[in-house]
Sequence to fold (253 residues):
Amino acid sequence: MLQLGRGPPAVLVHGSADKPTTWLPVMQALSGQFTLYAPGLAEIEPWQPAAGKLAVNLDLPWLDAVMAETGARVLVAHSYGALLALRWALLHPNALDRLVLLEPICWGMLAQDGTARQKLQELRDLCLLAFARGAIEPATHWLVDYWNGDGFYAGLPERIRAGLLALYARTWAEVASGGGDHTHASELARLTMDVRLLAGEHSTAESLAVMHALAAALPHAPFAVLAGATHQCLKSHAAQVAAAVGMPKQLHV
Fold:
């Protein structure tokens, strides 16, 4: 687990196919305000997603342990990690002072948006079927390009692609978690802590639809759209992300 800075403890949870080091630029920007902990998500074995086990259910006990070990009451998370953080916060509504969500894949929030929900269902089924058939590289290729743009996967160095393929079981279980998510706006009244929402201006239409649905359900939560950012905004827009995490409660980005 990476650790940096001084001050009240805060935990940062990364998304699919990322590592704790993805948070380093944000951690460096916040190191004067918090003691920051960036843990690595636990390993998932191939039999677990094959048996229908969702990453979010496997990871909730892991996050219990991380929060207890660090004593943090600030939780910041991105993508799949933000889905995990949201579900954890709903289970432990009195355990946090601040929750910062960067594009959680809580596709359940789109239940009333038929067009977006149908497209996500099609994409999820396509990807999960490929993983189940052992077509690991085509599924990974599709996912990377979905979040980063066509041709992104092909342009990655071979060692990076090999690393992504080695993580396929976790990626598979995380995709299933997004596809099986049932988060509903009515649940969010339990989030009485300081909640902050962040999205990239040029993220996918489905992810932005989730963020607007969350913002509508949490009208008092500051919602910042990062100009020029994609879904993968932690390095490219680290200063803006850090500002949203560390800003005084009464201010907006």
